Amino acid sequence: MTAAADLFRQRGYRAATLDDIARAVGVSKPTLYGYFRSKEELLAAIFHRAMSLFERDLDAIRTSGDDPVTKLRRVIRFHVGAVIAERSFLAVFFSEEANLPPRLSRAIRRRKARYDRTVRAIVEAGVRKGTLKTTNPRLLVFAMLGMSNWLYQWYDPAGEWDADTIAAGFIALLESGYLATPRTRQRDVAETLGRIERELAGLAPLIRGPGRRRR
Question: How far apart are CA 70 and CA 201, in angstroms?
Answer without folding.
Answer: 42
